[in-house]
TrEMBL record:
Domain of life: Bacteria
Sorted UniProt keywords: Membrane, Transmembrane, Transmembrane helix
Keyword Membrane: yes
Transmembrane segments: 7-23, 29-49, 70-91, 103-125, 146-170, 190-206, 218-244, 264-291
Name of protein: Lycopene cyclase domain-containing protein
């Protein structure tokens, strides 16, 4: 694929994603696929500039099929983690237009494109940050001694994640079968701190596993004096959260509830939602890295 075709592909997906702004339909299937086109378009834009700057590209890679398979595996894991913890148990968001059928038809494709967008946004900011401050490649960490011991401890943090998730589940007072909460909301009786512990322990679990395999991480890169990944996560979170969430403000495909400071907002977006976005990257980056070829 040459640059011209790449640009036409970007234009197609972006323009297609704008159709809901010009029609009155609130059909959830139509809106869901329009949102997927929006995420694909943004991801392609990030990929295009990454390629222009560094010569690396997810889409133009000769291993595109292998890349897509990896993305599919990771996106399924991300879907299950986020929907079970954040939606079904935490009830932090719901989908007012979705029936159960609509939900299961759209949720996995939506998270596939969501994961694509998240990774592309991280890669472009890693490229830019690396060019500005140097050390673009993941440093060769010393796998002996304390770091390995820390990684092995982190590898057991899945137990903490599981325990906190079970605590959250049993604290909640569900007014109806769990699956039917897709398009309803109920008061959240579980302290938000429990979910925060769940998210952090899950991140550290993925960090430990990825580090042991010799792959890219965030926490262990910091210990080695490399801040490129952390800065990339913060910049990608700020940019992507605003773009991602702003599109939804007009349609309310999903609505946030039961989150701290839900009334405090930036550009109409809940402040706590924006602040929580880096946690998604912190878990996603080492998870994706874990499934890549050992470095």
């Amino acid at each position: 694929m040459n640059k011209i075709n790449f640009l036409f592909l970007i234009i197609f997906f972006i323009l297609s994603s704008l159709l809901p702004f010009f029609v009155t339909s609130r059909n959830p299937i139509f809106l869901g696929f329009s949102y997927m086109f929006f995420m694909i378009g943004l991801g392609l834009i990030f990929d295009f500039f990454t390629f222009q700057i560094s010569g690396n590209s997810f889409i133009l890679s000769k291993k595109l099929l292998q890349n897509l398979k990896l993305l599919l595996i990771v996106s399924v894991i991300v879907t299950l983690i986020m929907e079970i913890s954040g939606n079904w148990i935490g009830n932090f968001w719901y989908f007012p237009y979705y029936s159960v059928k609509d939900y299961f038809l759209l949720i996995f494709p939506n998270f596939f494109t969501y994961t694509f967008l998240m990774m592309e946004s991280f890669w472009i900011f890693k490229t830019l940050t690396g060019n500005l401050i140097g050390n673009t490649e993941f440093a060769k960490l010393n796998k002996k001694g304390l770091l390995v011991k820390i990684a092995k401890v982190f590898s057991g943090f899945w137990i903490i994640s599981l325990i906190t998730l079970l605590i959250a589940f049993f604290i909640q007072d569900y007014p109806q079968p769990l699956i039917l909460t897709i398009n309803n909301i109920f008061p959240n009786r579980t302290p938000f701190g429990i979910f925060l512990i769940f998210a952090i322990s899950l991140w550290l679990f993925f960090e430990g596993k990825s580090f042991i395999r010799g792959n890219d991480t965030i926490f262990f890169a910091i210990l080695n004096g490399s801040y490129v990944n952390l800065l990339s996560v913060l910049l990608a979170s700020l940019t992507t959260s605003i773009l991602f969430e702003s599109y939804n403000l007009y349609f309310d495909l999903w609505v946030y509830e039961n989150v701290p400071l839900v009334k405090a907002s930036i550009f109409g977006l809940p402040l706590s939602v924006i602040l929580a976005w880096p946690l998604q990257y912190l878990a996603l980056i080492p998870l994706y890295s874990f499934f890549t070829k050992k470095s």
